[in-house]
Write a structure and sequence with these properties.
Length: about 575
C-alpha cells in the first residue's frame, strides 16, 4: 500500500507491468503526488489520475497506450500540470474538445501516430514542444511564431507537413532549438531566422524541398552550434557571414546544389562535423587565408561527390588534431542541452557511408572519426602524414586519380575499421604494415595498378577477392593468381602474423641430411682404419684413373700416399 503522503513516485524502466484498480476512481489515487513516472511499464490503459489535484509532472512514455488522448488529462490538478510526456505510444488523435492549460510548459508527444493539423492553439505557454515522428499534415500555421513565443525548443520533424516556413517563426525569439526536418516544406529559408533568433543553437531544416540561397544574415553574436540543411535544393554559395558563428560544431549542407569553392573561413571555427557531399563544390582544399589548415576538433569530414581537385600530397594531416588523440574510454556525444537542470537535449544525427552503404549515426560519439574524399578529382600521392591520425576509423579516398604507392604509415592507424582506396591509379606492393590493422572490417583496394603478393595478416585473409579485383599484378590468397618465386617483393609478412606452418622445421630434410652424414663418416672410418679393405679400394681407383688418364699413370702412388697420410 502506497503512503498517502507520497509526493514523488518513479517506477520507470523497471520492466514492471502495472494494473490499475478502477473500482473507486472517485477518490484521488495519490492525493499528494506531484511527480509520477510510469515510463515503460507496459500500460495499456490510462491510470485513473483525473482526481489528482497536485500533479505537476506526468511521464507515461514508452507504453502501449493507443487510440485518443483523453481530454481530461489536460485538466489534471486544475492547471497544476506542467510537464507531460506521452511519447513512444500508439496514440492517433485527441479527444475533443481539448484545451492546453496555460501552465503546461513541457509537452512531448513524439513517436506516436497522431495525424491531422498541428495541435497548436492559444493560449500556449510552451517552453519545450516535441511533435516529431508523427503523421501531422497540412501546413505550419502562419502565426506559429506568436503561438510559441516563449518556446525554447520546437520540433515537428519527420511528419508530412507542406507549404512554406512562415516568416513569423522569427518572432519566437527565445528559441534555442528549431527542428522542421523530414517534411515536404518548400519555398526559401526566411532571411530573418539567422538574424532575429540570436539564442538559436540548433537549426535543422534538412530533408525538405527548400530552394534558393542560404541567407547571408548570420549576426556577430550568432549562437549556432548545429546547422543542418542537407537534402534540399538549395543553390548559391555558403554565406560569408557564417564565420560569425564561432561556436558552430556541426555543419551539414550535403545533397544540395551549392556551387562554391572550399569554405576556408570554416577553419576558424570549432567544427566537429563538416558535410559538403553531393554538391557542386570545386577547386583545391588549400586556403591562402589558412595555409596550415588546422582543424583542432574536426572528427567527421565528408566532401565526397563534388568536383574538388588538386594535389592531395600537399595536405598536412598532422594539423588535424581532432583525429590524432585516442581515448577509447570517452563515450561523450555531440548533443545540445536546453536546460541545465534537466536531461532535455537535441541529439545530432548524421548520415555517413560505411562499407559502401549509407548509414545514419543517431548518436555521434566524440571518439568516432572519418574522412571521405571519394568521387572527386584529387591527384598526387597520399601523404605519409595520414598515419598521424591515430584515432581515424574510416578513410575513403576512392574514385579519384591518386597515384603512387600506398603509404606504409597507414599501418599506424590501429583504430581503422574501414579503408577504401579503390578506383585510383595506385601502384606498387600492398604495404606489409596493413597486416597489423587488427580492427579493419572493410577493405577495398580494387581497380588500381597494384602488384606483388598480398600480405598475410589476421584480418587481410578474411576479405574476398572483390577487395583486390582489377589489379592484374596481385597474387596470393584470396585472388586466383598464384605467386611465383619472382613475386617475393610483396610477400613479406610481419613476424607476429606468420602462419604456424611456416615456423615448423622441415624434419624430412633434416633426417636425410643426418643419414648422409652418418653413411659418409662410416665409409671414411673403414677406408682409413682397415688396411686390407683400403688397399683393395685404392687399387680399384688407380685402375679407373689409369684408364681415364693414361699419361698421368706415374702419379698413382703419390696420390695414394697423400690420401692415406691425412689419416
Amino acid at each position: 500500500m502506497l503512503s498517502p503522503n507520497l509526493s514523488w513516485l518513479e517506477l520507470s524502466f523497471n520492466n514492471l507491468s502495472i494494473v490499475w484498480d478502477h473500482s473507486n476512481s472517485s477518490l484521488p489515487l495519490l492525493p499528494r503526488i506531484k511527480n509520477l513516472g510510469l515510463a515503460s511499464c507496459k500500460l495499456k490503459s490510462f491510470p485513473p489520475l483525473s482526481r489528482e489535484t497536485r500533479l505537476n509532472v506526468l511521464d507515461l512514455s514508452s507504453n502501449q497506450l493507443k487510440g485518443q488522448i483523453p481530454n481530461w488529462i489536460w485538466e489534471i490538478g486544475n492547471g497544476s500540470l506542467m510537464q507531460v510526456n506521452l511519447s513512444f505510444n500508439i496514440f492517433d488523435d485527441f479527444q475533443k474538445p481539448y484545451k492546453f492549460l496555460p501552465y503546461l510548459i513541457v509537452l512531448d508527444l513524439h513517436s506516436n501516430q497522431l495525424q491531422g493539423e498541428l495541435p497548436i492553439h492559444p493560449p500556449m505557454a510552451f517552453i519545450y514542444v516535441d511533435f516529431s515522428f508523427n503523421y501531422f499534415n497540412n501546413s505550419i500555421p502562419n502565426e506559429i511564431g506568436n503561438l510559441i513565443g516563449r518556446a525554447i525548443f520546437f520540433s515537428v520533424s519527420n511528419n508530412k507537413l507542406t507549404g512554406e516556413i512562415p516568416a513569423s517563426i522569427c518572432n519566437a525569439s527565445y528559441l534555442q532549438g528549431l527542428d522542421l526536418s523530414g517534411n515536404a516544406l518548400n519555398g526559401s529559408i526566411p532571411s530573418c531566422l539567422p538574424n532575429k533568433n540570436l539564442d538559436l543553437g540548433v537549426l535543422s531544416l534538412a530533408r525538405n524541398n527548400l530552394s534558393g540561397d542560404i541567407p547571408d544574415t548570420f549576426t556577430d553574436n550568432c549562437s549556432l552550434r548545429t546547422l543542418d540543411l542537407e537534402n534540399n535544393v538549395l543553390t548559391g554559395k555558403i554565406p560569408g557571414s557564417l564565420v560569425n558563428c564561432s561556436f558552430l560544431e556541426v555543419l551539414n549542407i550535403g545533397n544540395n546544389r551549392i556551387e562554391d569553392t572550399f569554405p576556408c573561413m570554416l577553419t576558424k571555427m570549432e567544427l566537429r562535423v563538416l558535410i559538403l557531399r553531393s554538391n557542386g563544390f570545386h577547386g583545391e582544399l588549400l586556403c591562402s587565408s589558412a595555409p596550415t589548415q588546422e582543424w583542432p576538433n574536426l572528427q567527421i569530414i565528408d566532401i565526397s561527390h563534388n568536383n574538388f581537385g588538386g594535389d592531395i600530397s600537399v595536405l598536412n594531416f598532422s594539423n588535424w588534431r581532432g583525429m590524432i588523440s585516442v581515448d577509447n574510454n570517452n563515450n561523450d556525444q555531440i548533443r545540445f542541452y536546453f536546460f541545465d537542470f534537466n536531461e532535455l537535449h537535441y541529439q545530432d544525427v548524421v548520415a555517413i557511408t560505411i562499407k559502401g552503404l549509407e548509414m545514419e549515426l543517431t548518436k555521434i560519439l566524440t571518439i568516432f572519426t572519418s574522412i571521405d574524399f571519394s568521387s572527386n578529382k584529387f591527384h598526387g600521392e597520399i601523404p605519409d602524414s595520414i598515419g598521424d591520425l591515430k584515432s581515424l576509423y574510416l578513410l575513403n579516398l576512392s574514385h579519384n586519380a591518386i597515384m603512387g604507392c600506398i603509404p606504409a604509415s597507414i599501418g599506424n592507424l590501429k583504430q581503422l575499421g574501414s579503408l577504401d582506396l579503390s578506383s585510383n591509379n595506385l601502384t606498387g606492393n600492398i604495404p606489409v604494415e596493413l597486416a597489423s590493422l587488427g580492427f579493419i572490417s572493410f577493405l577495398n583496394l580494387s581497380f588500381n595498378e597494384l602488384f606483388g603478393k598480398i600480405p598475410k595478416g589476421p584480418q587481410l585473409q578474411t576479405f574476398t577477392k572483390a577487395s583486390y579485383e582489377g589489379n592484374a599484378g596481385l597474387c596470393g590468397f584470396p585472388v586466383t593468381e598464384s605467386c611465383s618465386d619472382g613475386d617475393v617483393s610483396g610477400a613479406s609478412v610481419l613476424p607476429e602474423y606468420r602462419n604456424e606452418s611456416e615456423k615448423e622445421i622441415g624434419w624430412g630434410y633434416v633426417s636425410a641430411a643426418l643419414g648422409f652424414a652418418v653413411g659418409l663418416a662410416s665409409f671414411l672410418w673403414l677406408l682409413l682404419h682397415c688396411k686390407s679393405w683400403g688397399d683393395v679400394y685404392f687399387e680399384k681407383v688407380d685402375l679407373i684413373l689409369e684408364r681415364l688418364f693414361p699419361h698421368k699413370h706415374g702419379t698413382r702412388n703419390h696420390r695414394r700416399r697423400v690420401i692415406r697420410n691425412r689419416g
